[in-house]
Amino acid sequence: EHAAELKVKNRRKRYLDMHPHYFDDFTLELGNPKLHYFCIRRFQTATERETAGHGQVASEKMASSLWRAEIRKEGEEDMVQYTVFEQNVAKNNEAVTKEEAREWWVDEMTQRFLCGKDRAFDYKTVDENHKYDDPEEERDIQDAYFDSMESDFDSDGEGKEKVLTGETGIQDY
């Protein structure tokens, strides 16, 4: 069972590696709006915010707006400390760059994805798809299989080296 869970998580991780645009999906904001505001939105220019909202439907825009209004109301320093990122920043009282915040966002969303907590994502498309198996892992399995096989091309079948007689390796026509 543990091996199956590990295989699923490896497939999910490989999916994320192959689809880095997943982290730019506007629906992720609804999964953790406070973290999205803290890591992404507050660093965006007005143009970037407008561009990010183009793919949203009206209900998603409204939900996002409500969350952002609530966050502004609470104030950035009074936000609930429920992510590692927020806890570390609060503890160390250090300024965060846009790049650092983006790294934290990607890490948090990766952990969320690996655990299967993105309700908007159809995990079956990844979990049951051999396309996302690690090719190195497959190669290691094949290598182990062939290494375990005994080679008899150079032995006489009794473990001794085969002595070639009358064979020069040169073709005479």
Polypeptide structure, described:
It is built from 9 helices and no strands. With 173 residues, it is mainly α. Helix content is 56%, strand content 0%.
Q: Strand count, sense and closure of the main sheet?
A: none
Strand tally: 0
Q: What proportion of the residues is helical, as a percent range?
A: 55-70%
Low-confidence stretches: 76-82
Radius of gyration: 27 Å
Order of helices and strands: HHHHHHHHH
Decide which structural class fits the backbone. mainly alpha
Distance between the termini: 62 Å
C-alpha geometry: elongated
Give the gist of this structure.
The protein has 173 residues and is an all-alpha fold. Helix content is 56%, strand content 0%.
Quick tags:
173 residues, mainly alpha, 56% helix
Secondary-structure topology with pairs:
Layout: H1 2-18, H2 27-31, H3 33-39, H4 46-52, H5 58-74, H6 84-92, H7 98-114, H8 124-127, H9 135-148
Helix pairs in contact: 3-7
